[in-house]
């Protein structure tokens, strides 16, 4: 069942992120399904920490971006999501290639939403799991 309350596409997601942190980090939106969004981020000089691994904060940027996009397009017109809490468990380091994340809703309520974001390396190995909780603000 399609959960989106507003039109959403890969092109739309790229357009709204013009000149923002995700674009500067090289994030690419890949797919919008009926109940998920998929994007990836490169593991390169922009996104690595000094020891050569994908920076944990970059994984959180990917998670926050995916979950926030999901929430924004699953909200009724005029409502807007704002983050309340995000957590991330770093499972396996990535030193090259891409990390791809997929977000799906855990809960879509009237005043809160919770989104799960799973991130995997090019070999399909889980690198990070994250959960984002958002408040849904009604129009003013």
TrEMBL record:
This protein's record includes keyword Hydrolase: yes
Keyword Cell inner membrane: no
Domain Thioesterase per the UniProt entry, residue ranges: 51-128
InterPro entries registered for this protein in UniProt: HotDog_dom_sf, PAAI_dom, Thioestr_dom
Keywords: Hydrolase
Signal peptide segment: none
NCBIfam families documented for this protein: unchar_dom_1
Family named by the database record: Belongs to the thioesterase PaaI family.
Name of protein: Hotdog fold thioesterase
Organism of provenance: Caenimonas terrae
């Amino acid at each position: 069942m399609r959960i989106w309350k507003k039109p959403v596409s890969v092109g739309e997601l790229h357009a709204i992120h013009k000149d923002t942190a995700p674009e500067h980090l090289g994030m690419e939106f890949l797919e919008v399904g009926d109940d998920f969004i998929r994007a990836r981020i490169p593991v390169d000089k922009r996104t690595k920490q000094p020891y050569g691994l994908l920076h944990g904060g970059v994984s959180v940027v990917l998670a926050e971006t995916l979950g926030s996009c999901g929430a924004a397009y699953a909200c009724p017109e005029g409502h807007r999501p704002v983050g309340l809490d995000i957590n991330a468990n770093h499972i396996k380091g990535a030193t090259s290639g891409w990390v791809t994340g997929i977000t799906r809703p855990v809960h879509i309520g009237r005043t809160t939403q919770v989104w799960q974001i799973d991130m995997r390396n090019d070999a399909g190995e889980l690198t990070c799991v994250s959960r984002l909780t958002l408040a849904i603000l009604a129009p003013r």
